[in-house]
Amino acid sequence: MMRASDRDDRPTPTESGFAMPIATASEPTSEQNSAATAPRNAQERPVVLEARHLGVTYGRGRSAVTAIGDVSFQARAGEFLSIVGPSGCGKTTLLKALSGLLRPTTGEVRVNGTPASGVTPGVAMVFQEYTRSLMPWQKVRANVEFPLRGTGLPKRELAARAAKALSEVGLADVGDKYPWQLSGGMQQRVAIARALAFQPNVLLMDEPFASLDAQVRGDLEDLLLHVHARTGMTIILVTHDIDESVYLGDRVIALSHRPTRVRTTIDVDLPRPRDQIHTKALGGFIDLRTRVLELIVAERSVDPDS
Amino acid sequence: MSTRAVVSTASADPRTGGMRSGAVRRWSRWAEPALVVLALAACWQAVSVLDVLPREDFPPVTAILQALVSDLQTSELWAAVGASMEAWVLGMLVVVSIGVPVGMLLGASSISYRMSYLTLEFVRTIPGIAALPILLFIYGIGQDLTVSFVVLAALWPLLIQAMYGMRDVDPVAIETAKVYGVGHIRRVLLVDLPSCLPYLSTGLRLSGTFALIFAIATSLIVGGEGLGAEMARAAVVGDRPLLYARVLLTGLIGLVVALGLTTLERRTLRWHVSQRGAQS
Amino acid sequence: MIKKLIGPATSLAAPVTLVAAWWILSAGSTSPYFLPLSDIVDGFQQTWTTERMEDDLLPTVRALGVGFAVAVVTGIATGVALGLSARARRDLRPITEFLRSMPVVALVPIGLVVLGPGQRMEAALVAFAATWPILVSTSDGVRAADRVMIDTARVYGVSARRRLLRVTIPAAMPQVMAGVRIAVAAAVGTVIVANMLASSSGLGYLVISAQQSFDIQETWSGLLMIGLVGSVLTCTVVLAERVLLGWHRQYRSLERTAP
Predict the structure, then answer these.
(1) In chain C, which residue's Cα lies nearest the Cα of B117?
(2) Quick one: which of B50, C80, C147, C221 has the most CB atoms within 10 Å?
(3) A121 near C CB under 8 A
(4) Which family is it part of (chain C) (predicted)?
């Protein structure tokens, strides 16, 4: 297994300047602009995470179910990638394969060009089930620090990173509370802070806002855009919410029904910074979401299960 | 973890990573546990026959089984088993007829619940065995003693579970029943009792296993008729294989009672959250 | 504020009332077996001289303490191992089911034969009896540890050892402690039975010999002491639970009040 300290020794995009580690994120620099205009120069950036012909089959023989048929795509440094698909298309399975929690039946996951074995190094994940992903016996700060402990990081540095990440998500003063004393939206912010403190190469998000109410969801979407702009982190977000995929992403990958394949990739050339009111009123936004919606609806109508 | 390399063939199951076919898996499901039991018995046999541990104290499995088989053919043993089981059944009947209504009543109001639950939680941890001498004064040796001892010791788990179950009845269900004009008695029968059922069956399992322990303990300690007395007799005579055989039989009876009560619990719990997807 | 006082008050009301009722109702008792509570308290003071404590209380408590400590360690260790491995759980099932449903008193004669009378036998029996509740609930707790929580730790590259120590075991802790609590009753009961059957000293021996010589006051004294020992051990466990699972109590109460 890769430890965080091993990872930091390697020349990652984080260090070559394409994405900013959050330690320096607060100073406005030219990187922030480059993150804001990601789609235009995206092709020049190195590929951070790549899925090559990923396939996952559960069971065997007659009871075998192919959840993922053949999925390939690349995520470039600093890119915000949204993945949408019809319900039941194995989105969560795909993320598990990407993170290495699940060994793919076929294909491979590459990180910075190297095939990943086991749990994909340098990946952080935010789950939909925030109540189950945060540990109820630890206070908020300990939860955020948890992945960093045991990595050899000095205690002071560790505390500083956690504090920074917590203030990044607007929760500077709840470190001494237990997660379950917070509202759902705040708990998910804690989970995001934990991912930020980890300073991952890629942040994977599995329907992170699906169990939150609409207003909180909007707030957290904006928080995520803000974090993305400031840190230039590579983010892959899986969602069933088409608006969300277009609103957040630089690109939207639309998946087919099971066995899942990449149906289409759509570039989202909406200007950044985005905001809930103006971006969603843009003609471009409406066109894009209509296109994605059409794709998904078309997929649903040929769903073999229905 | 290092074994989860990138896989490019279609052979690996993502969940088990194994390649065993269905038949092999079914076979190993039954055969492996059976083999473990056999291996353990063989070990015991070897240890005993080779005198690794004193053969006198650890008789070989074959001798124990022989003693068990011949013991099972005597009517004395069956009378003893019958007496112990009778005490168990009678005790459990009393436990159910006191524990369920009293527990449900205590749980029905939040005041009585708050007043009693700490006391009861405490009472259950006080070893019931302590009451044996006093009961002995009152009843003398005999079935009355055993039954009353069983009741005293096994009442608490069921009573406490009944109380918790009543606490946990969904207020929405009660209100629904009220809105539809369901009468008081029918409400208890149709709403309260079914909602309590999972708790009651858990309580029944706990009480049932306790009751068996005490049914056997009584005759073991004070004599009289019962499995415990038979064990004591075998120990006094110094017939080690017979002693082991009777302990084995007691364990088997315990196993049957436990499995029966667990099955009952599973049945009533089938719809309950705790059992969903808990099948491995 | 008032609510804070009423809570403990109502739960203390019942035991206080019960003891008071016992005191008053038994005051004029002429029954040979149910002595007035005041006589029992007097007898308790007379019975439990320092000497008596050394002779009868200490051996029992020592056997209880050693056996219980062994049970906690083996129960948790084995429970964790069984909780982690579905295969071990399945293969050892016949054995664990048999041993755990074995009425533990049945083992006293064997213990006596193999280990002879004495504290060693008592401690061994206590350890055996108390291991099962702990083992079973630990294994259940480990098995029920949340998949998402463990996956989270895995994604973040947390080592298997730390995952076990920092995620799985803490998650199983509430159930472990529930098992430990059940084990208290099993342990105390077993040590008393062993005393009654096979010892020439100890609490169980004291009550059974007092009973046989029809010394009713001393029987009650012994009985009260058994209750006291059980209570003290329970209190210790509850206290440990409060320290270890402070978060859990609040967590549960929050869950219960939430709509």
Answers:
(1) C11
(2) C221
(3) yes
(4) Belongs to the binding-protein-dependent transport system permease family.
Of C155, C171, C247, the CB nearest to A119: C155
Cβ of A118 under 8 Å from any chain B Cβ?
A: yes
Residues A134-166: tens digit of each pLDDT: 888 889 999 999 888 878 888 898 899 899 899
Tell me what pLDDT residue A187 has: 92
Give chains near B: 3+ CB pairs under 8 A: A, C
What is the rounded distance in angstroms from the CA atom of residue B93 to the CA atom of residue B100? 11
pLDDT digit string, tens, across residues C103-123? 888 888 888 888 888 889 999
- Backbone torsions φ then ψ of A55, nearest 5 degrees: -140, 140
Contact flag A135-C170 (C-beta cutoff 8 Å): yes
Domain ranges of chain B: 78-268
According to the per-residue pLDDT averaged within each range, which of A29-33, B17-21, B99-103, B163-167 is highest?
B99-103
Q: State how far residue B245 is from chain C, nearest Cα, in angstroms.
A: 11
Residues of chain A with CATH 3.40.50.300: 38-122+201-306
One-letter amino acid of C85? S
Residues of C whose CB is below 8 A from A204: 155
- Contact B230/C109 with Cβ under 8 angstroms? no
**Minimal-distance CA residue of chain C relative to A138:** C247
Q: Which of B153, B123, B260 is nearest to B217 (CA)?
A: B153
Which C positions 46-85 lie with beta carbon below 8 A of chain B? Answer: none
Whether residues A106 and B15 touch (CB distance < 8 A) is answered with: no
Mapped onto helix, strand or coil, the DSSP state of residue B95 is helix
Per DSSP bridges, beta strands A65-76 and A234-239 are unpaired
A119/B10 touch (CB, cutoff 8 Å), yes or no: no
What is the ipTM for the molecules in this complex? 0.79
Q: What is the pLDDT of residue C2?
A: 58
Q: Per the CATH hierarchy, to which homologous superfamily does domain A38-122+201-306 belong?
A: P-loop containing nucleotide triphosphate hydrolases (3.40.50.300)
CB-CB under 8 Å, B122 with C193: no
Phi, psi (rounded to 5 degrees) for B261? -70, -35
For domain B78-268, say whether CATH 2.60.120.200 is its number.
no
What angle in degrees, to the nearest 10, is found between the helix axes of C58-84 and C119-144? 30
**Would you state the pLDDT for residue A8?**
39
Q: Is residue C2 within 8 angstroms of chain B, CB to CB?
A: no
Architecture of domain C56-257: Orthogonal Bundle (1.10)
